């Protein structure tokens, strides 16, 4: 063996295997649910095709990693679906009913158990991840252009503390020449306002997607400079020396806004098959995700499976009235806030208004030009997302609210039970935070809290869940993660956070952070795990703060020692 | 006897590409170019000049047999040995793949520790 030796290859294989497991666990949940949603519904042919492709990939890769039973069951399911996918039958519903029978779903539902059983056999190690790796192994990047050495150094250091990878350039020409051709993971371009015109030119030339957040910094804060920066389409302006927490915060906000503008999930309810198909194609071409319902009685089930941002509904559908369906949807409290938009040829304004009065939110008149439809639907999706975010996110930090963190924790707890995986929950608390508020005021205290929220967002993976539990307390849920790795990651967060310098009343100060960690699977309930994390946090506070403590059970029979066994 | 050094591996599934890289590079010591699609392979094959091409059969858009056909049209590639990688290895199918111009068929899933030996074996038998 040429390089690294046998053990090296085995280790690398194990790591790949662990990545595979972590991904398949998520994919299984998603795809099994989607395939159940199709049950006998001819409109689901696209979902079936996707399911078929997914099963094909799973069948191909599972065996490679030693999951023989999982691979061969996936292969059988793939072959079952193949008949449907390759068939151009007039009676698709009839065919679906015979193929997607009880046996099919039973076998489909057995996949998670097969994964678990095989994983038990070959002792899958937990997902080994680098400490500062948000996801897909790539940190979010900020490109920085300034001719000033000091500005470059300060911003590079400051932003990397927030978990950004900073690519530094000393001139727009250098940027044009050297910059990696990809805009992937690019969170923002930060540049010196002295170079405004040249930077603007390069950005236009590189055809960077027009929505890339652009931020300028300047020594000069005159009206003229600010105006020209605004004219260049910038999303932020900061004077030197730059307030780093505020800059990181602005970059975060700009990226959230950018994310909100993208995509959207639409459920179309209409009994006209061809029209529905047309809308679907138009909206999908416009970058939206679409699920259709042509049989109105399915609507409630589809809603809970798909959880769309908005519903587009025809008013008159054979035996069914859209108005009654809207009213029926509103029977369920969870759909009270869901925007329902009528899509109808009704042109009488009075009729439209009375339809809206009956539980829908808006009216789009048919016929409508395709590009108008995309615009109208997109705008409503953005609005709907913003509203639902407002309802579920903490307004100061943009993290999950208390009640939702607990919901997520309960979900993760069940998932770990089902798949025999490890996950950690951590409680975090700012040290001596009252002193910050007392000496610098609540506005400065809020900056500190937001800084921690932003730091957590960048240091953790997208699949990790972060919530503000109250006051200066945070909860973090780390799926597919051992206690040791969690400790390492949070220790790193503590170190980074302690290094941030805040400004209050002409005086600079730093704040430290304590954390307690508990393993979900060592406890009988999500609640108990959270209490243990809180207990560990308390121990940390007593032991001198500024760091991480893992929960240690007092009971010698407790399973703490089996933590990394998997 | 020609020596097998450079292998092009065309596979749409990233997991399998990663394992194949380990198997062929770390275990086998070959020089390997990984391609994620038939199109990708067609675009990069000239720059790499492989001794042997391993093709996944079922890929979206250009599948294995189509990729093989397109490769054969390229100057200098009419004769390059190609083996298919597939889960379906009934003997009738193996024969039909060979009829398309493949020298052999390798069964998936493969064992990462022995894939290189298998590939070398095929090479020795058909080419070397």
Automatic annotation (TrEMBL), chain B:
Q: What are the UniProt keywords, alphabetically?
A: Phosphoprotein
Q: List, alphabetically, the PROSITE patterns matched.
A: RESPONSE_REGULATORY
Where does the record place the Response regulatory domain?
A: 6-123
Q: Which residues cross the membrane?
A: none
List the Pfam families hit by this protein, alphabetically.
Response_reg
Q: Which SUPFAM superfamilies match?
A: CheY-like
Q: Which domain of life is it from?
A: Bacteria
Tell me the residues on which 4-aspartylphosphate occurs. 56
User: What protein am I looking at?
Assistant: Response regulator
What organism is the protein native to?
Answer: Marinobacter xestospongiae
